[in-house]
Hints:
The complex is a heterodimer. In chain A, about 30% of the residues lie in helices and about 30% in strands. Chain A is an alpha+beta fold.
Amino acid sequence: MYVRRHKNLVLILAREFASKLATPMFVTDADGKLVFYNEPAEDILGRSFAEAGEMDAEEWANLFETEDLDGNPISLAEMPAGVAFVERRPTHGTLRIRGLDGVQRTISVTGLPLYAHTAEFVGVVAVFWEES
Amino acid sequence: MRRLQERLARYLSPPLFPVHLSDIPATLSFHDAPTAEWEIGDLRIRAAPVSHPGPTIGYRLSDGAHSFTYIPDHEPVLGTELGELPPDWISGHELAHHTDLLFHDGQYTEEEYERRVGWGHSSVAHAVEFARRSDAARLVLFHHDPLHGDADLDAVRGRAEALWNGNGAAPPTLAHEGMELEL
């Protein structure tokens, strides 16, 4: 039987924070699994979180057909949220994604690693917005 | 994250207090709560961070047959409806799930809570809903508001009983000095 793990308190607070923001934001756990994104993010990612559900790192990294501004595909490790996850450091970048509604958008993303204790990495938050 | 000793040393130092922690004539031992379960005698103890300003933890004690969960300082949701959250997203749920006895923060009436959102404590409705979502068998409300007199506390208990609908379980009660409970 699949049992959902209880979320770390830092992730719970990050979700509550995100749910109050008009700024698009998503949250991953320590395994890189996308565990939440807020309503403003739904407009950019093209599908509600309730419909999309949780997804593993490789799944969300591939799902949005992410590419750089020259049109070259970029891997999870090159995305700002991926850098925060893989290298455990904050980073910022501009890239293109194709939302689940099929629309390609240029977005700027800031990814931040979350630590509950100095050595306890618990996940990543990524704040992003669509470039006009 | 500062260790317990560092936190206590801050309070026991000028200008907050004239005597330093290191001046106390005793052999002091400080034990930060481990992140993994540990044992004291026949009891297994688990601690986990819960939602409250500043680092705060709740406890679950179990002897294998019965369990007791102690979360005296807790605001389980902030501006969200507790009933809307999946259990794995509820602060403290892992400690209270199917516990036999839950001691939980129930400081405010629902009206009082409206003016104290973010202070780190629960309304009576939060406490009852948290106990229900956790499938706790019994709820004892704790962390009474220092401004509440006996009449206020009676009203809190009455409201908790009205909200409980605990599927035949004993209705919530209020913790008080000298209280003894058997599991």
